[in-house]
Amino acid sequence: MTKDPDRRRLTIDLVFYTGCLIFAVANTAVAEFYGYRVWANFAVAGYGLAVVHTGWLTIAARRGKRPSGALGSRWVGIGAIGLFAMILPLGMLVIRRLTGVDWLVTPNSWAAQPEVWVIERSAKLLLENGTPYVDVTALGRAAEVNDYTPYGPVMTVFGLPRALFGGGPVANALTDARWMFALAAVACVLLTLRLLKWPKIPVSAAQLALACPLTALTWAVAGPDLAIVGLLVLSFALATTGRAVLSGLVLALVISAKLIVAPAVAVLGVLLITRRGPRALGGFAAALVVTTLVLHVPVYLVDPKAFVEHVFRFPMGIGVIKSPAASPLPGRLIASLGPVGTAVSFALLGIAAVVILVWLVRRPPATGSDALTRMAVGLVALILLTPATRYGYLVYPLVLLGARLVFLSAESRETAVPGKGTAPPAQQSATSS
Which top-level group of life is the source organism from (predicted)? Predict the structure, then answer.
């Protein structure tokens, strides 16, 4: 006898939310950072409500009495998580940050993660010196981790509101860089959905991209990775819908903020030549190269040594001081064995890159969802094998996989339209349900 698909989905939801709840509960007790603990206390309520609601729906479904109306929707759990695990803790931490604990070596007091302060400082440095990067060898003291700005020049944009308009308590609260990251991420989601002609969003897509603890935690305590992955998804949507030049421009912005997404150049290039031909690829490449040069060259010329140290050497773990990224992932563990271990880690990373390139060439992505799958796999390999890495970077492949489900929804709707695909009109309702 085939299991009721509705009950099966609810069971998966219940397992997912229970796992998220366990993660949040654990962080209330063991998290090193103050912001993590604040987030966790709020998140317990969000995930707890999702578990209770989903459990209620599961019991009702087994009795054949699934509630109707808004309370019977699986989106209720997503809404509870959005409110209690994202919006409320972010607001609380922005206010708490006004007490002034930035730059202190006291993680148990940080209301924002260091990347927030560093990006805001980088904007101030850019306005004052023409570059967000300082020469860490000319400080007159030993370099510290927080002296680094391990991002490209575009990341500085998110700190400009604080640098230009901050000062008083209200101004500082309103210009916290986390609001800028959040606004950018939301704008990218809306633009992507518009480009895809507002497809139906599967609940599972929202669970991967939004409700997962890595996303919710990042939203509240930091945020830059969500803005970057949002722009990355937007560049895939632009390429998929035939806007090759705009895709190249947006991807240049993404790479000029954080180099971790650089593999997208190969994925989108293959997607465009497969779907649109050499002319589209040429437009994409031209926009990518020109925009990248315009963004990087002026900053590089101000202080080439500092630029290379901050943007390349430090993130790769070969800077003047070591990156603190030390999650126990394979690349980090192998590199911890010494110089030979670091060489082995980079060799494995190179092998993984070759394997993925072969995959791209032999089975080129023909759709946006195919391209997102390959990008997610590539980033998983990069995150796992890079010597300096954090488990938090896994938010990238999780969001990409969630976006993939939305792209699939849009693609299935397109192929179901008479004359555009194989699904006859009689099957359209079944396909979209």
Answer: Bacteria
